[in-house]
Amino acid sequence: MISEQPTRQPSERLSTRRAWLGCVLPLLLLQPGLAAASDAPSARPAAAPRVVLDRLELPPGLAGTRYEKRLRKVLASETKKADWGAGSSSTIEFRFKVVTLKVTHDSETLRVHCEAVGRLPHGGPALSQLAYGGRLDRQSELIEEVLTIVARGVVTRLAEMERVRRGRQGSVRVKLPAE
Fold first, then answer.
1. 128-148, pLDDT tens digit by residue?
2. CATH entry, 50-165, from 3.30.160, 3.40.5, 3.20.20, 3.40.50
Protein backbone atom coordinates (compact mmCIF):
# COMPACT_ATOMS: atom_id res chain seq x y z
CA MET A 1 0.00 0.00 0.00
CA ILE A 2 1.35 3.41 -0.95
CA SER A 3 1.14 6.06 1.71
CA GLU A 4 0.28 9.53 0.63
CA GLN A 5 2.27 12.41 1.97
CA PRO A 6 0.49 15.65 2.58
CA THR A 7 1.00 18.12 -0.24
CA ARG A 8 2.34 21.49 0.71
CA GLN A 9 1.38 24.76 -0.83
CA PRO A 10 4.14 26.65 -2.74
CA SER A 11 4.28 29.32 -0.02
CA GLU A 12 4.88 26.63 2.64
CA ARG A 13 7.71 25.10 0.58
CA LEU A 14 9.31 28.52 0.14
CA SER A 15 9.16 29.32 3.84
CA THR A 16 10.69 25.90 4.65
CA ARG A 17 13.59 26.57 2.26
CA ARG A 18 14.15 30.01 3.72
CA ALA A 19 14.19 28.62 7.25
CA TRP A 20 16.70 25.95 6.22
CA LEU A 21 18.94 28.50 4.51
CA GLY A 22 18.66 30.77 7.56
CA CYS A 23 20.08 27.99 9.73
CA VAL A 24 22.71 26.57 7.39
CA LEU A 25 24.09 29.71 5.74
CA PRO A 26 25.58 31.25 8.93
CA LEU A 27 27.27 27.93 9.73
CA LEU A 28 28.85 27.82 6.28
CA LEU A 29 30.14 31.37 6.61
CA LEU A 30 31.79 30.55 9.91
CA GLN A 31 33.92 27.80 8.35
CA PRO A 32 37.56 29.01 8.36
CA GLY A 33 38.41 27.61 4.91
CA LEU A 34 35.52 29.35 3.22
CA ALA A 35 36.25 32.73 4.78
CA ALA A 36 39.92 32.53 3.76
CA ALA A 37 39.00 31.75 0.16
CA SER A 38 36.85 34.85 -0.09
CA ASP A 39 39.58 37.05 1.43
CA ALA A 40 42.27 35.86 -1.01
CA PRO A 41 43.81 38.67 -3.05
CA SER A 42 42.76 38.85 -6.66
CA ALA A 43 45.32 38.24 -9.40
CA ARG A 44 44.05 41.37 -11.16
CA PRO A 45 45.14 44.83 -10.12
CA ALA A 46 42.62 46.90 -8.14
CA ALA A 47 42.10 49.30 -11.04
CA ALA A 48 42.57 48.70 -14.73
CA PRO A 49 44.96 50.72 -16.87
CA ARG A 50 43.87 53.12 -19.56
CA VAL A 51 44.00 51.18 -22.83
CA VAL A 52 43.97 53.24 -26.03
CA LEU A 53 43.42 52.10 -29.60
CA ASP A 54 46.22 53.99 -31.33
CA ARG A 55 45.31 53.09 -34.90
CA LEU A 56 42.64 50.99 -36.59
CA GLU A 57 43.34 49.90 -40.17
CA LEU A 58 40.62 48.33 -42.27
CA PRO A 59 40.47 46.97 -45.82
CA PRO A 60 39.06 49.29 -48.49
CA GLY A 61 35.28 49.40 -48.40
CA LEU A 62 35.06 48.56 -44.71
CA ALA A 63 36.12 51.93 -43.31
CA GLY A 64 33.28 54.17 -42.23
CA THR A 65 30.71 51.37 -42.23
CA ARG A 66 28.71 49.89 -39.40
CA TYR A 67 31.33 47.15 -39.19
CA GLU A 68 33.97 49.69 -38.18
CA LYS A 69 31.65 51.07 -35.52
CA ARG A 70 30.94 47.56 -34.21
CA LEU A 71 34.65 46.68 -34.23
CA ARG A 72 35.57 49.80 -32.26
CA LYS A 73 32.86 48.97 -29.72
CA VAL A 74 34.05 45.37 -29.35
CA LEU A 75 37.70 46.44 -29.00
CA ALA A 76 36.76 48.97 -26.29
CA SER A 77 34.72 46.37 -24.43
CA GLU A 78 37.36 43.63 -24.64
CA THR A 79 40.19 45.91 -23.54
CA LYS A 80 38.23 46.71 -20.38
CA LYS A 81 37.69 43.02 -19.63
CA ALA A 82 41.29 41.92 -20.23
CA ASP A 83 43.90 41.64 -17.50
CA TRP A 84 46.79 43.77 -18.77
CA GLY A 85 48.94 43.35 -15.64
CA ALA A 86 49.15 47.10 -15.04
CA GLY A 87 47.63 49.55 -12.61
CA SER A 88 45.38 52.54 -13.13
CA SER A 89 48.29 54.93 -13.57
CA SER A 90 49.45 53.08 -16.72
CA THR A 91 48.45 53.80 -20.30
CA ILE A 92 48.72 51.03 -22.86
CA GLU A 93 48.46 51.76 -26.57
CA PHE A 94 47.83 49.17 -29.24
CA ARG A 95 47.16 48.99 -32.94
CA PHE A 96 44.66 46.78 -34.70
CA LYS A 97 44.57 45.93 -38.40
CA VAL A 98 42.10 43.80 -40.31
CA VAL A 99 44.39 42.31 -42.95
CA THR A 100 41.73 40.50 -44.96
CA LEU A 101 37.99 40.11 -44.84
CA LYS A 102 36.67 37.84 -47.59
CA VAL A 103 33.04 36.89 -48.07
CA THR A 104 32.32 34.00 -50.42
CA HIS A 105 29.19 32.00 -51.04
CA ASP A 106 27.94 29.04 -52.95
CA SER A 107 24.33 28.16 -53.68
CA GLU A 108 23.31 27.67 -50.04
CA THR A 109 25.99 28.86 -47.62
CA LEU A 110 28.02 31.92 -46.88
CA ARG A 111 31.65 31.79 -45.75
CA VAL A 112 33.44 34.69 -44.04
CA HIS A 113 37.23 34.59 -43.67
CA CYS A 114 39.02 37.22 -41.60
CA GLU A 115 42.66 37.78 -40.65
CA ALA A 116 43.65 40.46 -38.15
CA VAL A 117 46.80 41.53 -36.36
CA GLY A 118 47.32 43.59 -33.24
CA ARG A 119 50.54 45.15 -32.06
CA LEU A 120 51.87 46.74 -28.89
CA PRO A 121 54.56 49.45 -29.13
CA HIS A 122 57.29 47.20 -27.69
CA GLY A 123 56.03 43.81 -28.71
CA GLY A 124 55.52 41.45 -31.56
CA PRO A 125 52.31 40.85 -33.43
CA ALA A 126 49.22 39.09 -32.12
CA LEU A 127 47.61 37.29 -35.05
CA SER A 128 44.13 35.89 -35.34
CA GLN A 129 42.30 34.34 -38.23
CA LEU A 130 38.92 32.74 -38.54
CA ALA A 131 36.78 31.18 -41.25
CA TYR A 132 33.11 30.97 -40.37
CA GLY A 133 30.10 29.80 -42.31
CA GLY A 134 26.39 30.37 -42.16
CA ARG A 135 23.20 31.15 -44.02
CA LEU A 136 23.16 33.52 -46.96
CA ASP A 137 20.46 35.74 -45.47
CA ARG A 138 22.60 36.49 -42.39
CA GLN A 139 25.60 38.09 -44.13
CA SER A 140 25.81 41.26 -42.00
CA GLU A 141 25.39 39.36 -38.74
CA LEU A 142 28.04 36.80 -39.73
CA ILE A 143 30.55 39.50 -40.64
CA GLU A 144 29.98 41.24 -37.29
CA GLU A 145 30.29 37.93 -35.45
CA VAL A 146 33.56 37.07 -37.20
CA LEU A 147 35.02 40.52 -36.49
CA THR A 148 33.97 40.17 -32.83
CA ILE A 149 35.61 36.76 -32.41
CA VAL A 150 38.82 37.85 -34.13
CA ALA A 151 39.01 41.06 -32.07
CA ARG A 152 38.59 39.11 -28.83
CA GLY A 153 41.40 36.78 -29.79
CA VAL A 154 43.79 39.59 -30.66
CA VAL A 155 43.05 41.60 -27.50
CA THR A 156 43.43 38.53 -25.29
CA ARG A 157 46.81 37.76 -26.85
CA LEU A 158 47.98 41.39 -26.58
CA ALA A 159 47.02 41.44 -22.88
CA GLU A 160 48.99 38.25 -22.30
CA MET A 161 52.03 39.70 -24.07
CA GLU A 162 51.80 42.84 -21.89
CA ARG A 163 51.54 40.79 -18.68
CA VAL A 164 54.68 38.86 -19.67
CA ARG A 165 56.51 42.09 -20.51
CA ARG A 166 55.62 43.56 -17.10
CA GLY A 167 56.65 40.38 -15.30
CA ARG A 168 53.13 39.63 -14.06
CA GLN A 169 53.12 36.30 -15.85
CA GLY A 170 56.09 33.98 -16.03
CA SER A 171 55.87 32.91 -19.63
CA VAL A 172 53.61 32.96 -22.63
CA ARG A 173 50.98 30.24 -22.47
CA VAL A 174 50.42 30.16 -26.21
CA LYS A 175 53.18 28.42 -28.09
CA LEU A 176 54.03 29.88 -31.45
CA PRO A 177 54.60 27.48 -34.34
CA ALA A 178 58.25 26.85 -35.19
CA GLU A 179 59.39 28.80 -38.21
1. 999 999 999 999 999 999 999
2. 3.30.160
